[in-house]
Amino acid sequence: MVAAFPVWKGFPVSRTFPACLLAVAIVALPTSIALAQQTAGPAVLTIQVDHPVAKVSPTLYGLMTEEINHSYDGGLYAEMVQNRTFRADWSGIRDWYLVERGQAEAKMDIDTTTGPSTALPHSLRLDVITASAASSAGVLNTGYWGMALHPDTTYRGSFYAKEDTPQVGSVTVSLVANQSGNTLASATVSGIGAAWQQYHFTLKTGAIEPSAANHLEVTVAHAGTLWLNLVSLFPPTFHNRPNGNRIDLMEKLAAMHPAFLRFPGGNYLEGYDIRTRFDWKKTIGPLVDRPGHPSPWDYLSSDGMGLLEFLEWCEDLHMQPVLAVYAGYSLNGEHVNPGPDLEPYVESALEEIQYVTGGTDTEWGAKRAADGHPKPFDLQYVEIGNEDTFDRSGSYDGRYVQFYHAIKAKYPNLQLIATAPVKSVRPDVIDEHYYVRATEFFHDADHYDKTDRSGPKIFVGEWATREGTPTPNFGAALGDAAWMTGLERNSDIVIMASYAPLFVNVNPLAMQWTPDLIGYDAMHSYGSPGYYAQVMFASHLGTERPAATLEGAGARFFYSVTEDRAAKRIYLKLVNASSDAQALDIDFSGVRLDVQGQVTALSAPDTQATNTVEHPDAIVPVESTLAVHGDRLHYSVPGDSIQVLQLQWR
Ligand code: AHR
After folding, report:
1. Atom of ligand 1 nearest to the CA of 387
2. Strands 123-130 and 105-111
3. Among 28, 388, 435, 536, which residue carries the largest CB count within 10 Å?
């Protein structure tokens, strides 16, 4: 849960201060900033546009994800019912409460003797002693700290149920406003039988005020016994996928132009112990066949977001899957010895890869087709484990090699990622993780400048400036942006990078890690300043890096320049982490620029400034235009700002 193996190098080479260059600010600064800020420089940035020196990795920016901070349950996965399978602990049946209206009398309990499937062998038993149409009895669910309801919207639900006698009658499902008690939508399900069966219903709201202060009630109007399990309710989802994802969060991710998705973790892949690892076979197929499992982040995962849902998430956002397979090491230190003991885990990984990529004529490809997705997914990267530097047994080398040979024998084109140094075989890619303060990223933005280009490629599979809570503040965004300039400059070797953690439900009971890139509650979501920095960088990636030098800039000034030669476009990222403005004299050798460029700028009055659920747009990118002539540009980068200049050449 800490940085895996960041290797600290020295500070950036100090830059000399130029004596004789004049700078002209082309973009006027807001008066308040202009008055408060000194201007340093000018520094000289020389870009040899006609001299590309390295390719930019098209997969540089992607997403890393795991079940943490209610990232899926209570987050991206749009299920509205919390604890839909009635798990109980010392406090009772979590998130469920008894409803006894008027003179009704009832009790609820967990029945371990009956359930709808082998995976869900238990159920909620509701014994109704007295009830009537005017005095109904049942249970209510409070959702993931509320249930967001919108006007004129259809919510689709289902449950598994059985009754002891037909006398219990029909079941009423209602969405009820917490404060007023008003029923906002209601449906009746009749014909519940004596054997377990799934029942579907829809709930349609009318002209209501959008609010998350609502709950779901499941009630009956007669005495008798009703058993329930897998009570589920979904709002409209992204691309209308059944069992799908929240639209607002998917749209936020789409704006990041992610090239890949690393899943299913993180520590979530490893589990607290071997028993609670991400066991992919238990996450596929009908929901009723998924038992769910404890996540290492101290809550139960429904596994509604299972292997196929991860892949469909990739499909929806045009991301490559980066599939992490369990490699025989868990967080409590348990490990599996390489050799015969590890064989079942290797076999399971091979089957998992076949589930992802196999034709329908293969065993696991056929299973994927039966699960609703006949078309195989394209897979290029498989990661063996997670943060195996923490495995003190020294078994990773042997474990990696065993997976490596078995996977390469069947899938020679797959690129295999190692999560710790390996000696016995050369990994294709190494995954490195960095969780640091902004100052450390400022000092280490040149981290990969001198990395050996003949070694394995690098995947910075987790990185973050850890400042701000629950989401990063603007100071963290400056650290992130400085670090990203180094990733871009070295993206011939750093082929992929992903911030972590991605998501946080900002309800205090939902969070285990801070900061996290995107925050939300049941109703709202927002991007942090760091999120917007990534949107800005990834939206202006480019295909090549031209030769460039910078002289005379302050120590907390960072840049990256890329270009798209086919489009004759230059993308210049400028990060000024000093509170002083930085004057720049930019020389674009080899081309003549068009008269108008575009500027996307992110800034804040203070490094502690941030976005919140209440103020989601306090710090957002601002677009403007920039007049440019010929091959030179005098430009002033405001203090504490992140900017992307898009310039066109003729
Ligand atoms: O991102 C949070 C955790 O940090 C990840 O699960 C783990 O890989 C790292 O230690």
Report:
1. 8
2. antiparallel
3. 388
Q: What one-character DSSP code corresponds to residue 56?
A: P
Q: What's this model's pTM, rounded to 2 decimal places?
A: 0.94
Contact 427, 351 (CB under 8 A): no
**Residues near 341 by Cβ (< 8 Å), separated by ≥ 6?**
none
CA angle (106 as vertex; 101, 109 as ends), nearest 5: 130
What is the tens place of the pLDDT at every residue in 599-636?
A: 999 999 999 999 999 999 999 999 999 998 889 999 99
Distance (Å) from CA 253 to ligand 1 centroid: 20
Does ligand 1 come within 6 angstroms of the Cβ of 513?
yes
Task: Tell me the per-residue pLDDT of 549-596, one tens digit each, with 9 for 90 and over.
Answer: 999 999 999 999 999 999 999 999 999 999 999 999 999 999 999 889
Q: Is the CB of 462 under 6 A from ligand 1?
A: yes
Asked if residue 517 has its Cβ within 6 Å of ligand 1, the reply is no
C-beta of 266 in contact with ligand 1 (< 6 A): yes
Q: Is the CB of 554 under 6 A from ligand 1?
A: no
Determine whether the shortest distance from the Cβ of 244 to ligand 1 is under 6 A: no
Q: How far apart are CA 87 and CA 79, in angstroms?
A: 16
Q: 349, 326 in Cβ contact below 8 A?
A: yes
Preceding peptide of 151 cis, ω within 30°: no
Q: 309 in ligand 1 pocket by Cβ < 6 Å?
A: no
> Which residues does residue 525 pair with via DSSP β-bridges, in sequence order?
520
SS (H, E, C) 18-47: CCCCCCCCCCCCCHHHHHHCCEEEEEEEEE
First to last CA, the chain: 50
